[in-house]
Specification:
By secondary structure, this protein is mainly β. About 10% of the residues lie in helices and about 30% in strands. It has one domain (about 5-115). It is built from 1 helix and 6 strands.
């Protein structure tokens, strides 16, 4: 049995870089969907030997899905018998270097099994949290 990607984080759809949104929209268009139909974004760690090219971290890729079942951090991801595709964007864009390369998996329906806790949206790697979105410590709440 082949190892599967493991869910590491859930990312708010609004935090997905525009370049990556456009690429994912191009993947789901032949399936009859548009970007607003995508309901899930996150990151996952790939098992050794399954990584293709550069990624967000040593073994991390973006994951997107139009529809999801129950997912928890640490779940092994399953396509649940629906369409899947890969997205790979070059590190070069418009002659500007460096530009972050993106690796992603796009699922029509994504499920998971074996996780620990319910996922909570987080910022993707490399994006700073704006000060107005930072949480105050319990004793410093306004």
């Amino acid at each position: 049995m082949a190892s599967q990607a493991v869910l590491q984080s859930v990312v708010p759809l609004g935090a997905v870089p525009e370049r990556l949104r456009s690429a994912v929209a191009g993947v789901v268009k032949p399936w009859g969907y548009t970007w607003p139909d995508v309901s899930f974004a996150g990151t996952a760690v790939l098992p050794r030997g399954e990584r293709r090219g550069l990624s967000l971290g040593p073994d991390e890729v973006w994951v997107f899905a139009v529809t999801t079942g129950a997912l928890a951090l640490g779940d092994q991801l399953e396509s649940a018998g629906s369409r899947t595709a890969g997205v790979s964007l070059s590190a070069f864009s418009g002659g500007v270097i460096p530009v972050t390369p993106f690796q992603a998996r796009v699922y029509e329906y994504l499920g998971g099994h074996g996780g620990d806790s319910p996922p909570q949206p987080t910022e993707p790697p490399g994006l700073a949290t704006p000060p107005d979105r930072e949480r105050a410590a319990p004793d410093q709440q306004r």
